[in-house]
Amino acid sequence: MSLATISPLIASGFHALSEPLRLQILDLLRSKELCVCDLCEALGVSQSKLSFHLKVLKEARLLRSRQEGRWMYYSIDLPQFVILEQYLGEFRRFSPIVPARSCDD
Amino acid sequence: MSLATISPLIASGFHALSEPLRLQILDLLRSKELCVCDLCEALGVSQSKLSFHLKVLKEARLLRSRQEGRWMYYSIDLPQFVILEQYLGEFRRFSPIVPARSCDD
DNA sequence: TTGATACATCAATTAAACTTGTTTAGTCAA
DNA sequence: TTGACTAAACAAGTTTAATTGATGTATCAA
Fold it and tell me: Do A99 and B92 touch (CB under 8 A)?
């Protein structure tokens, strides 16, 4: 993967991950999918607020949604996590072994 | 690593990574350290603007700086990249194999 | 000491993100 | 149908982040 051509999805992915509440949402969804009302209750935030952040996560392709009756279930959309993980991993390939210079820190 | 207790550094790390210009800066620094004027010239942005973004990256511990005479050299600070990479990797451990459900996409 | 260079910081403005309350649309049971 | 419920969409207002231009500090060479 060339880092010179940075996909807009990369930046928006990291942006989606930059909010504490959104990280909490992802944490809750790690093991199982949940509907919005479950998340609302678990996080103690308003539905409207949650809806905004779920939209950010979904547009960054970190979440997918599935409707079942009147409930909307959200779950982790793994591929984009892998892409972001690999993006960060690229930095290891070109940098000296950790820690770089320990002599004069 | 428990995801329930989210370090502020995690969120600020992802925040620092959420800006296209900051990603470009990191890209330029992947293979070698550079001084601010090198980055200024390579990116075609004002020194003041660059200084602001370098500070964001440094506060997120993605960059380190080293002064040599009147030049300030910036370079990748790898450990935090590894931490963020591992944070993303945790999501793979609990989710089904990629791709999750390929039947009805 | 003077002037030039390299960079950081500040204050003011602009832009983007987030919050909150309300409205709209879809689902389901009675 | 009606009414209760769930979630998305919308439209404020508020907060936070980014940009710009000017100023400040340190280094170095003349």
Answer: no
User: Which bases of chain C are contacted by protein, using any atom under 7 A from a CB?
Assistant: 5-10, 17-22, 26-28
In this model, does residue B68 exceed pLDDT 50?
A: yes
Chain A residue closest to B11 (CA)? A18
In a domain, B13, yes or no: yes
Phi, psi of A59 (to 5 degrees): -65, -25
Does A23 contact B at CB distance below 8 Å? yes
H helical segments located in chain B: 8-16, 20-29, 36-43, 47-59, 78-94
Using a CB-CB cut-off of 8 Å, the residues of chain B touching A10 are: 23
Please state the domain count of chain A: 1
Assign residue B38 the CATH number of its domain: 1.10.10.10
pLDDT per position as a tens digit, A42-78: 999 999 999 999 999 999 999 999 999 889 999 999 9
Chain B residue with Cα closest to A60 = B18
**Residue numbers of the domain that contains A68:** 8-88
Q: Tens digit of pLDDT for each residue in B51-61?
A: 999 999 999 99
Residue A95 lies in a domain: no
C-alpha to C-alpha distance for B63 and B37, rounded to whole angstroms: 16
Is residue B73's pLDDT more than 80?
Answer: yes
Virtual CA dihedral for A78, A81, B105, A67, nearest 10 degrees? Answer: 70
Evaluate whether residue B3 is within a structural domain. no
